Amino acid sequence: MKITLTPSALLLICLIIQAYCNEKDAEQRPGAATQPPPPQHHTSRPENHHEKYSKRPRGAECVRCCDPPERVSAYPMYQPMPQINVTILKVGRRKPLHSNDYYQTLVFDTEYVNLYGHFNMFMGKFYCYVPGIYFFSLNVHTWNQKETYLHIMHNGAEAAILYAQASDRSIMQSQSLMLELQDQDEIWVRLFKGERDNAVFSDEYDTYVIFSGYLIKPNSDP
């Protein structure tokens, strides 16, 4: 029996034989087998492909070139100055006192605070050992039907006066001031001489006469 092949059938047979021979040749050559490349996903696109669609221009990466400038406050920082030998004084008197024929120093008999002993209780005077600006305050109780007439003295000069007229009622009277003192300056309270009926009241149960002071600013501070 004679088989007749058409030209198209012959061409198909030739292509099949050629493909089979190529596959055999590839298996016989060592290291010739190659794996097909993995499919590329949208997350593993090349970098240049990603930059193609980026809106940031080339060379515009954020690079820290210097430290940010320090914030400067509009107000200067306060630096506390050390307080050296700050003088604090508070003394009182529990005995009444009448004026004599001469100027009389008001001597105190009760010591509340006398830091560093700058107030001499026997003399009734404060001696300055730390030059600077001081604050002093005097509080007294007046006597019925008697005047109250005192001076806060600074080196023999009247720095301030405390005065109350004679009255049927006794009252609390006060005076205060600031003074700039130098080394060895003296501060004390003086009762005016007895040209008038002058007195201050106090008793042993309560302290009606108080003298106090403290250093505000030493001269050594800027």
Automatic annotation (TrEMBL):
Name the record gives this protein: C1q tumor necrosis factor-related 1
Organism of this sequence: Podarcis lilfordi (Lilford's wall lizard)
Location in or out of the cell: Secreted
Family matches, as PANTHER family: CEREBELLIN-RELATED, COMPLEMENT C1Q TUMOR NECROSIS FACTOR-RELATED PROTEIN 1
Segments for region (Disordered): 27-56
Keyword Cytoplasm belongs to the record: no
Domain C1q: 82-222
Signal sequence residues: 1-21
Any matching Pfam family: C1q
InterPro entries: C1q_dom, Cerebellin_Synaptic_Org, Tumour_necrosis_fac-like_dom
